[in-house]
């Protein structure tokens, strides 16, 4: 029985745990070869070992480093061939009032969440172009569609990811490469599952619960698959209807 991602070679950043882990598991289950890129070495290696060497590979990847990205692309091609899918998922959040937020902390979030996406698309482009096309999925956030207080660097970075995806979609279309952004809302990960703030937020949205990471993985799988062949430069919300209010 064929899978929806058969023949795809996909790099997933921040793939060692949380949503990234869910993406990696779903993609392998659907026939893809997956490279898990992360700074969390122990967790990433354990996940790759569980998924099997024929299906997955862990690569230590600092998404803020162009050299690290170039090395990861070269290692991916060596292991599985040319890249046809990219999921820019690595990210972090710094909760702090604007008045108290340091420049260094602001820049640290932007480096991972925004510059990391730029470097990922840039590094993977030649391989994907040589493959004859592919799909890039940039994980933004509900905070890339509406604003939230006390996380200005996160919101700024996620709005940037949304815009960057649209710009790249226009540039890369001649190479048969699609670029879209995914905007998760309240997702039950280690960061939010026991968060009183997250549980309170979902009470006011149409679907009154947190999503499971697997539900976001369903959207990512769709966008990486050939089923989404006519979708590019768009944002896809997985937010329980929060933004519809």
User: Would you list the SSEs in sequence order as H and E?
Assistant: EHEHEHEHEHEHHE
Mean pLDDT over the residues: 96
**What is the number of E strands?**
7
**Count of helices?**
7
Query: What is the CATH H-level superfamily?
Result: NAD(P)-binding Rossmann-like Domain
The helix content, as a percent range, equals 40-55%
The largest sheet, given as strand count, sense and whether it forms a barrel, is: 7 strands, parallel
The CATH top-level class label: Alpha Beta
What's the arrangement of strands in the largest beta sheet?
3-2-1-4-5-6-7
Shape: globular
Our count of domains comes out at 1
Estimate the strand proportion. 15-25%
Task: Give the N-terminus to C-terminus distance in angstroms.
Answer: 41 Å
CATH topology: Rossmann fold
Low-confidence stretches: none
Instruction: Give the oligomeric state.
Output: single chain
Q: Over all CA atoms, what is the radius of gyration? A: 17 Å
The appropriate CATH architecture is 3-Layer(aba) Sandwich
Class from helix and strand fractions: alpha/beta
